[in-house]
Each structure stands twice: as structure tokens, then as C-alpha cells.
């Protein structure tokens, strides 16, 4: 972005991804950009009048739309309808009010879990609507796919530049460490923290065989800020590490064990679901724009996240 003053609002900026966007945007502040960081305390985006009031107050020219109901496999299996309704409502309202107020660009987040369950690999941006998603996160996935449908219809009917990013599994500081609702890495870190404290075994849920591509929240933040400045295509863009950096849940757990110095016993609870086996995605499109982008090595990201959790145990979401 260059030229006239931009007002970038970031919805959901108190969450995992939004906190990282705050850190990076403040560090890389540009004179022609004013950043406004919002959370649910500034208004409930499920309510269109509250969304209108937020946009009236800040007059954004650009929106990074991160507000969402987000959770791990087990939360998605339990609350599919809530994931569907909440995310449909937030995204409908944010995009409609952006249209009404003439916002120049919106980037919203989808996720790699929304791709068809039965697919060829690697997954790419053209495959979003090719078949039903994995049944474990049907509600969330269908709500997220509608972002792409809305972006295209707002573009075709009204000429809006509304687009989307597709991150793989994200991790980092400020995540939700709730054992029932959170994602795998927060679950592993929190369970090891408790196992060390209470001298009890550490249990990995499921077989540990599923594979995931993890992206550090601060890397994702750098990419989202690049996208709101430079990416002008309604079609989505996958934001993820290289395919060879995919790891199994077992390998992930081993890294957390090493980074926490846990010496106790490690077990698997095979009564717990494995979820989707893999959702390996290609970052070829991203690399065509940013061939030299350096991702934080997963080991370093885990180390920083483990340290953050230990230092912020009392206040972390859990
Ligand atoms: P998160 O940590 O759960 O944060 C969610 C944010 O949304 C919070 O700031 C929350 O505000 C806000 N929010 C929730 N409901 C709201 C409402 N009704 N009105 C206004 N604000 C509301 O989520 P995240 O992991 O950062 O996810 C950010 C985006 O990335 C989401 O679109 C998500 O689908 C996508 N994504 C995440 C992952 C992942 O692994 N985490 C992977 C792929 C894509 P409060 O703090 O005030 O409640
Ligand atoms: P997903 O990538 O959308 O499936 O979501 P998650 O981040 O919740 O990862 C789920 C995978 O991690 C499944 O294979 C689970 O069996 C496995 N897993 C192992 N331990 C945990 C844990 O403590 N919490 C969660 N959420 N998943 C775990």
C-alpha cells in the first residue's frame, strides 16, 4: 500500500493469529497506515448493527478479518452447528458492511481443514469446493468455504476486492490452551506442563500417525500483512510451510517432550479420534510471489511457544 492514508482494521486481534499481527504490524509500522486492533469487546460481529457501528467509528479502508469461532478436532466434533452459525454470521456481516462502506480490500482466513476429505495431494487453491470435507469439522468447513463464495459474488456483482488466505495448522503464543477445545500443539504443551507438575504420565490422543503442516503465528502474521498490502486477487492463497516440513503428531509430541525436558512416561489414548489423516498443501502459489520467504524452523517455534506458556501460565487462555 502506498499513497493516501490507509486505515487497516484487524478483527479478532486478541486471538492467536491477531496477537501476532499486532506484534508484527507495530514493529513494521509504515507512516501511511493506521492500524486498529479489535476484539469481541469492541462489538459482537455476529450482530450486523454492531458491525456497522464498528465500521462507522473507524472508517477502515482495509480489513484483515480474523474474528472467528476456532477450535481443535474435538471441539469441532462436539459443536459443529455452533461453528457453522457463528462463522457464517461473522463473515456475512464483515463482508456486507465492508461493501456498504466502500472498504478497498478485505482478507479473511479459511483453513486447510476445509478441503475435500477425499482428494489428491498436494492440495492447492483450486480444490476448495471439489467434494465434502472431513465429517469431523463439517460445520466449520462449510462456513469457511462460504467466504470464498461470498468473495467471488461481491467481486462479480459489485467489483469488491475481497479475498482469502488459507493457513495450515497455526501455533504460537496467545493460543487457546484449553485441553478440550484447543488444537493439538497447545494440548500437548499443556498436558506436559501438568504431567511435569503432578508427576503423572503424558498422554497423546489418538495414534500419533496423522500428519500436519504447522505454521508459526508470527510467520503467518508477516504473510497476512504482505497480503493486505500486495495481494490483489479474489482467488485464495495458501499460506503454509513447504510440503517436506510436514510432521506427524508423534514427531510433534517428541519435539515438545525434548523442548520441555519431560522425562516421564508417554502413552497414547487410542479411544480418541485421529481426525483427518493428512491435508498436505502446496505453497507453490505463495512461492511464486515470495520465493525467498524464510519460515521459522518448527523446533525454534515450539521452543518459543513452550517458554511463552510457562511464563504466562496464569493468564493464558485455558
Ligand atoms: P482465536 O485465537 O480463537 O481468536 C479468535 C478471535 O476472534 C478473538 O480475538 C475473538 O475475540 C474474536 N471473536 C470471536 N468471536 C467474535 C465475535 N462474535 N465478534 C467479534 N470478535 C470475535 O483464533 P485464531 O486461531 O487466531 O484464528 C484466526 C483466524 O485464522 C480464523 O479465521 C481461523 O479460522 C483462521 N485459522 C486458524 C488456524 C489455527 O490453527 N488456529 C488455522 C487456520 C486458519 P475475543 O478474544 O474478544 O473473544
Ligand atoms: P486438526 O488439525 O484440525 O485435526 O486439529 P487439531 O489441531 O485438534 O489436531 C488433531 C490431531 O492431533 C488428531 O490426530 C488428534 O488425535 C491429535 N492429538 C493428539 N493429542 C491431542 C491433544 O491433546 N489435543 C488435540 N486437539 N489433538 C490431539
CATH-defined architecture of the domain at 6-171 and 213-243: 3-Layer(aba) Sandwich
Low-confidence stretches: none
Number of strands: 12
Strand order of the largest sheet: 2-1-3-4-5-10
Note the run of SSEs as H and E.
EHEHEHHEHEEHEEEHEEHEHH
Give average pLDDT, whole number.
96
- Kindly provide the radius of gyration, computed on alpha-carbon positions and rounded to a whole number of angstroms: 19 Å
Sketch the major β-sheet: 6 strands, parallel
What would you call the structural class? alpha/beta
CATH class of the domain at 6-171 and 213-243: Alpha Beta
CATH homology superfamily name of the domain at 6-171 and 213-243: NAD(P)-binding Rossmann-like Domain
Q: Describe the global form.
A: globular
Strand content: 5-15%
N- and C-termini, Cα separation: 37 Å
- What small ligands are held by the chains? NADP nicotinamide-adenine-dinucleotide phosphate, guanosine-5'-diphosphate
In the CATH scheme, what's the topology name of the domain at 6-171 and 213-243? Rossmann fold
Helical fraction equals 40-55%
Number of helices: 10
Domain NAD-dependent epimerase/dehydratase: 8-233
Protein name: GDP-L-fucose synthase
Enzyme class: oxidoreductase
Keywords: Isomerase, NADP, Oxidoreductase
Structure, explained:
The protein is α/β, with parallel strands linked by helices and 318 residues long. It is 42% helix and 15% strand. Strands 2-1-3-4-5-10 form a six-stranded parallel beta sheet, with helices on both faces. The longest helix is centred in the N-terminal third of the chain and has 21 residues, at 80-100. The two termini are 37 Å apart. NADP nicotinamide-adenine-dinucleotide phosphate is lined by residues 11-18, 39-41, 44-46, 66-70, 90, 109, 111, 167, 169-170, 176, 183. Residues 11-18, 39-41, 44-46, 66-70, 90, 109, 111, 167, 169-170, 176, 183 line the site of NADP nicotinamide-adenine-dinucleotide phosphate.
